[in-house]
Design brief:
Layout lengths: L8 E4 L6 E4 L5 E5 L2 H7 L3 E7 L3 E5 L4 E4 L9 E4 L5 E3 L7 E5 L13 E3 L16 E2 L7
Parallel strand pairs: 3-10, 10-11
Antiparallel strand pairs: 1-2, 2-5, 3-4, 4-9, 6-7, 7-8
This protein binds zinc ion (2 copies).
Length: 141
């Protein structure tokens, strides 16, 4: 439920070419440690689930590129083609989609609920005890 006093939060890529805003509080925030997120995000991904109606692209549609992974993976990865920043999976085709929390320039209000796909976490990465629930696989799957 989006608080009535929710103030829009800006988001951007590293070079500033892509700018967007979230006009409502995201549904959730979680960490994904799968190998695909590791390679794209640089270590692991912080993923917001956002309602399409709450996502507004302000600038830079021409910079956005999409990587479509081979089957069975379905998650198309959007990123800035100029600076490489991950953006998540903003889409006109889905009611709710992932947005990279790393792109936000403000606090979305939600807090992490889950570390998922920990089975794929590199052994050399020690996670401090942050009190967030941890699972080896994917939530719900
Ligand atoms: Zn960029
Ligand atoms: Zn992942």
């Amino acid at each position: 439920m989006t608080p009535i006093d929710f103030k829009p939060i800006g988001g951007s890529c590293l070079c500033g070419g892509v700018r967007f805003e979230l006009t409502g509080q995201p549904l959730s925030l979680s960490y994904c440690h799968c190998s695909r997120c590791r390679k794209q995000a640089g270590l692991f991904a912080a993923v917001l689930m956002v309602r399409r109606e709450d996502f507004r692209l302000l600038a830079g549609a021409e910079h956005i590129r999409r990587y479509e992974p081979p089957a069975p993976f379905k998650h198309v990865r959007a990123f800035c083609g100029t600076c490489g920043s991950p953006l998540g999976e903003p889409s006109e085709a889905h009611e709710v989609f992932p947005v990279a929390a790393s792109a936000l320039d403000g606090d979305p209000g939600v807090r992490p609920a889950l570390h998922q796909n920990l089975a794929a976490k590199p052994d050399w990465l020690a996670l401090p005890d942050d009190g967030v629930k941890r699972i080896d696989g994917t939530y719900g799957g």
